[in-house]
Design a protein that fits this description.
The structure is a homotetramer.
Chain A (H helix, E strand, L loop, with lengths): L4 H7 L5 E4 L2 E3 L9 H15 L4 H4 E4 L2 E4 L8 H17 L8 H12 L13 H13 L4 E4 L9 H7 L7 E5 L3 E12 L6 E4 L15 E5 L5 E5 L14 H6 L3 E12 L3 E3 L3 H9 L3 H31 L5 H26 L2 E2 L5 E2 L2 H26 L16 H10 L7 H15 L2 H12 L4 H11 L2 H12 L22
Helix pairs in contact in A: 1-2, 4-10, 5-6, 5-10, 10-11, 10-12, 10-14, 11-12, 12-14, 12-15, 12-16, 14-15
Chain lengths: ~500, ~500, ~500, ~500
């Protein structure tokens, strides 16, 4: 059953514990730091209910409409359907929310497409996984994930030598009903807004880290669980005009702190198996399914970015200068090339087990790497195109509230055909995209959300068909050797052969 | 009728005039500077006749088999067929020949798909164009082109003020049978091996350059026409082992010098129309059709390059060092990303006039730009991976001809499991790909063969949907204004709307 | 007479009009947005009075101690003295304040070293310039500048065609006592803290922009003058621990709005001369003198940046990974290379008119360009080294105020030998250097404070000795010609000659 | 006693064994592959005897004039003297010869400035070192070095397991008179032209590689020693006009093959001490002294490169296009910045033991890194500025020998004021600098001659004053802590303190 935005807003007022510094947030849908974000997520729920988008955003399962992002694709056309749904969501938020409901949905759907992996080793539960998948899809759940140990946990020996309890989340007790968890997990983006969270491990664990292998999908209001938010960028007193993107698109990032949190067995999908805990992502379509959303999201952000870059140059009058046109041409090439890398994943899709199909894996990782490798420089290019423009404007649009200041502002800041307010609006928007606190967090996010650069390069390395690539040169080298002496001319040249 | 390699070699011994410096080349199929190349092109003709590749390389026209690269595509599958044929050719020559027969074939086929452009203005001949297309296809012709004025021609005023004849090719006389041409055209790659050449103008002409607008497709042995070759890289005495790529893949570049060359009217497709002379490429599918071959060729070169890069690191023992793996991962991401940009052109194809279809134009230009922008650095990365390896080896494999030297060589140059000869073979190959004269010409070629970088950026600029991209931000800015005061929280937040 | 910090703070409470949005700031030394900055500037004044720094920071003029940055250098050692004073100031603020008192002091001192330029054309006043220089030096004045027209002013025709008054600052009336100014000037960094401001034009004016050529040095509290601040980054409620750099080093940027501001003649140095208005900077040592401070400041920032980068890698445990060491080695090379570019300016100093000496001009512009060209990427490298570290920490250190939260924080966030608070302190500091609003403004500042990139490249272009550089190749080409035939071996080789 | 060029040419006809492939070179001063280089080195010897350069190129030792590059510097002025001598040599060969006589002279002179290092451990000989230094200086010797094991030697275990003799050079026997050496050493640039060679190890050896630690300075004509040259780029039939740099500046690179070569004890400076074998370079001024020459050489190459880049743009008419000017400005900034990094080494020199002085070590390594990191891209920029220019010209200037071709060439290739020959001369020169085989070898050389990039970054890493850099941030962090609450405003702000 699809939720409306209103249903959604009610559903996340579930008593979860969120801290912003020492402040306990009572209702995230009303608090200045989170209300703007909550409203945006609610609007996404409404978008899914929009009748005109019914075929784009949903599909039928046993007579019910479900969110398209739970679709298990069986044809090239199914891949296009998922792609279109991701795109509609990404367009709505200009690619600025990394953790929309379709993100982790891709992950879980990917797990459900090869559930036998959960039976391949002890500690996995295929049944629980499939039930969880059904529940998320049926109940229109927004799940996020937290699948990395805290940096503070990476020095195990120290804790043992000091007799300290370790910060990494682990099972500290078990009973008939389930497991008890203690410790910390990072970094749940969207946790202030999601319903549930997938807890797991995307980085390999050592064999002796069995107790940390716990993988489960749980509500964010479980007793004992608290969400420690990084500093929100939105706050009371910021005018939407001055920070329009911060206002709507601060998705939140939270450390999850567990103090004797009890999780029932039916929510557990991996337990006491360090290797399996990570393998489920790479031995199933999970990682690929999830990251296609990342690609699509980034593509929409790119479109937003270069549209704004072009508008900025129009407003400064620089757009007609050849070198600026060339810069815009370069940005346009980047945007089109990235789009091509996504469409290529559909053209060159893989047929996999159980009749399912998958986006081209190598193209997907190439696109991930491209984004990570180029985002900072794209932002820097736009920064350069803006010059010092944004610092010329008043600290706040509240100058309009004072008639005298307003008159000065409108007369001195108007630039030819571009009105003072219009210019300020554009520059504040552009700055919120590339220069504000919110923008800066995004710049870090684009660098790390799939893992550090070396990990993304490693995905590209391990998926490359090295034997095939080596063979190109090796086969060629077989066609000549050190004994050949006069390779040119002669009768031979009249007998070309395919070699 | 398809030619065999033997037919082809006979056919290009047509009396054409080629100069290498002051030396007149009598028979390019036998001369050390060209025989290796000729043999490679002949092998490409044989490849096309290979029965096992019949469906890949050819298609049926009126009961005859024709080269696939003359196919006018009417469906997504037709695009795939062209793509596959290009790929088979590019694989055969590792993407190292830019001017294979399928290159200009794409150009002319593109012209034939919108022949009405030749009727849109005076001076164009639709009939001649279509007849020429038929002739090339039917007679299995290898055409190249020369469509840029010599650098020396870019200072018109000077020549006029000095009373000198201008170097740019132009019509100097006309009669009933045709036109007489004088001057020079640059830079016909493959001219030593092709049958015919498209003469034209890819750079805009000034309106008063009518006489330079001449566009025609002519045999390379016309009386009065001579081909002035740049220094060939192949020569007698070079062992294939020492320069295996130079030996086979030096495609030649020639300046075309016209001295009273007479061209019959039926070979002329544009005459006395400066604007039309250029517009035919961009107002028809010509430019896009031709450049898809460029993309495919480059992709195969990339595959060859990274295969060799990986083999080199294996031979030096560096492949297991994390930072080297990361570099290889980065190269693999580049290769896969480029492949995706090509496949994306098929997935997002355009439906155009007359029931034809076309590769996605923006994706194609993005891929062109990527190649131009990244090639030098890719080569530089491989250079870095090679270290000084190539300079450690003897000047020539002819050391093997001397028993004493051979014994020293085999004992001291062997490196663990990698034999001395094997290592030398790999490093000489790698160097011929990235470091030799031949390689260096290729590095320049990749930078300029579609025109200078600013022109390629301009193709990306002019094809970008700026209005659509602007609208993304403009529509967003309409959703809020300077009068909004307290955007957060409140009853409003409970009424999310799609905006 | 040198001021103390206390003197200084009193002196800037001078009734100047500062707006932050619609809010009028009554006393910038007490307002949360500016008090931190004011305190830092005051500390710089105290630094200058520190007896232990007497020889570094001051020199004697007619028995008085004056700030070293007013020294007119007459020897290489004098250049070192200026360099040391700049360095002491830059160290104190970690290179994070661009507009410290020594910045514009360099500018004015440079003007005073070639005052005859003011006599070379009508409208300049040598006497006023020299008197102003004496006053600034004698009275220990902190001057800033505003020497760029607002972006909105760059479309003159529009205003005329619409009958609007133009936004660019101009003389609108003259009388016996002086001139009356109206319009706007951008962008006075440090204006909230400085005593006076140099008004002028660093960009060339059109000949008909005579009235805009007004160049003068005036107090910031002149009646009719108001300072429109961009949004300050400091504010009440931010804990120093959470944003330590923002707290102390937000130097402010203000648009200067003039409404019937009267300036007495003795403060005017250029009037009604469009060309002279700009030439004074490049025809005197002014531009070079001022920009040496920029170089020195940037060098200290670099040192701060890479020190922090290294500490961050130590805290994350990554410092021992080879690829991270390599990155730090790369940063260290950048830092040392930049230092060398500054010291090279002293070694290769110029002897100029009147017995003065000057920092090497070409080396200085090279260093400016290097900073502008590399800063963003340096920041990006540190961002990459930080990973998502900064988002793991609580929103504010106020968690320490709650005993329960504090205990959780201290136990879970401690990482081996690195305590929770210590880690948070480091990451908050690093983020304030590269990721916060304050940091982001700095990233734009480094790109534009000397003008756009093309202008800085132009300084490098016009100062390069092209004739000398051309001659290297031209002289070489004279040593051989097209008639040489057998250049090798032979008797000749035994007669080497120097050529 | 200084040699003349003629003396020098006679002196290197010493019976040494050079192989080019299987060909044994009888007299390198007459062979087409080496005669051009020999002549250049001879000219350098004449340059040193030029009376007008006496003070630049030589200094007095016990009444004799010796080459300045053997000067042990005792003052800043001495550093300038060495710098000037290096510069004169580098200018003469446009920075295109890496291995001029002053290169290894710097190395050995550096060893002689801290000879006690040879006494610090067993196996070193201070006396031999000082005698060798005296001999080189007194006899005006040109020494080169070979201090890296062959790549094939890096898999020791393999050889042992296979019972094979190892390729790395080692002592295989000892007797009263000296040691017997067998194996191979790479890569002696200049070995065809030098008198002697320093054999040693710049890469750390494992403790069990005692026998490989042999370090000695020996003549290149020792019995049993043979020089295996990489392919020379110069050869009979190449006209100087077509490859002017190859013709004069192919310095040669040789693998040194030792077969029972006997070296007398007095030529040995390290024996049977793996650690000392490497430490002598870094624990003495040796590495820094040698690499200052590398810096100076590179600076002159840069000047040559950008002079030619500018001339090329003048010849193509592109120099007035803004974006091209900007590129030239960027190149000029690079050139000036590099010059500054060298002059900075003199301004910030180190006072070291025994009253000697040294170039600033960190600045030197920074400059080395900059060159290695930027050279390829500088070349690529020039390549881009050249476009396809060089391929437009005839294969050889021998077209001038044929009256008919000459007339066509002169009429069609002349471009306005630039004659056909003049243009061809410039483009051939430019191509020989950046595009030919010779140029390509140089591009690899610049990447590896001081070792791989990671090693150069490591020099920068280990020489950085990390404690000092850390302290900047650490001292700052001590000035505030988590207990500060309201840092702004208040009475406190009136009491600024230096902190």
């Amino acid at each position: 059953m699809l939720m409306t935005g209103k249903d959604y807003l009610r559903s996340i007022q579930d008593g979860r514990v969120i801290y912003v510094g020492r402040e306990r947030i009572e209702n995230q849908t009303q608090h200045p730091a989170f209300a703007g974000g909550a409203r945006t997520y609610a609007a996404l729920y409404d978008l899914k209910c929009d009748p005109s988008l019914r075929e784009v955003m949903t599909y039928e399962v046993n007579g019910d409409r479900c969110a398209m992002y739970y679709l298990q694709p069986r044809s090239q056309e199914d891949l296009r359907r998922r792609n279109r749904a991701h795109r509609a969501i990404a367009k709505f938020c200009f690619g600025l929310l990394g953790r929309t409901p379709d993100a982790i949905a891709g992950n879980i759907t990917g797990l459900s497409m090869k559930p036998e992996v959960f039976e391949s080793e002890p500690g996995g539960s295929r049944t629980n996984l499939l039930n969880i998948y059904d529940h998320l899809r049926r109940d229109d759940i927004f799940a996020t994930y937290a699948i990395v140990p805290p940096q503070s946990a990476r020095n195990k020996d120290y804790y043992q030598s000091q007799g300290l309890s370790q910060p990494a989340l682990r099972v500290t007790a078990e009973d008939d009903r389930g497991v008890t968890l203690n410790g910390m997990k990072m970094l749940a983006s969207g946790a202030a807004y999601a319903h549930e969270v997938l807890i797991g491990n995307v980085m390999p664990l050592a064999p002796d880290q069995k107790k940390e292998s716990i993988t489960c999908v749980i509500p964010l209001n479980l007793p004992g669980l608290s969400l420690w938010s990084r500093r929100p960028f939105n706050r009371a007193g910021i005018r939407e005009f001055d920070n329009p993107l911060t206002h709507r698109f601060d998705e939140s990032d939270c450390m999850l702190v567990f103090r004797d949190v009890h999780v029932p067995w039916e929510k557990v999908i991996v337990h006491d198996n360090a290797a399996l805990s990570r393998n489920i992502y790479v031995q199933t379509p999970s990682h690929v399914m999830a990251n296609h959303q990342c690609n699509v999201r980034f593509a929409e952000k790119l479109r937003f970015l270069i549209g704004i870059a072009s508008l900025v140059t129009r407003a400064t009058g620089a757009r007609d200068i050849p070198v600026v046109r060339e810069t815009l041409g370069r940005l346009a090439a980047a945007e089109a090339g990235y789009g091509a890398m996504i469409d290529g994943q559909i053209e060159a899709f893989h047929q996999i087990d159980h009749g399912y199909v998958l986006f081209n894996r190598r193209y997907l990782y190439a696109a991930l790497h491209w984004a990570l490798d180029n985002h900072s420089q794209l932002v820097d290019t736009v920064r350069e195109l803006m010059g010092g423009g944004q610092f010329q404007f008043p600290a706040s649009i509240d100058v309009m509230d004072d008639p005298d200041l307003r008159s000065v502002f409108e007369s001195l800041w108007t630039a030819g055909p571009f009105g003072a307010i219009e210019r300020m609006k554009l520059f504040k928007l552009a700055w919120d995209l590339i220069g504000s606190d919110h923008a800066s967090r995004a710049t870090s996010y684009e660098k790390l959300f799939v893992g550090p650069a070396f990990a993304v390069r490693n995905y590209n390395f391990v998926n490359a068909p090295w034997d095939e690539l080596h063979a190109i040169a090796e086969d060629f080298m077989k066609t000549y050797d050190e004994t050949d002496r006069d390779p040119h001319g002669g009768a031979d040249a009249m007998n070309p052969v395919v070699r």
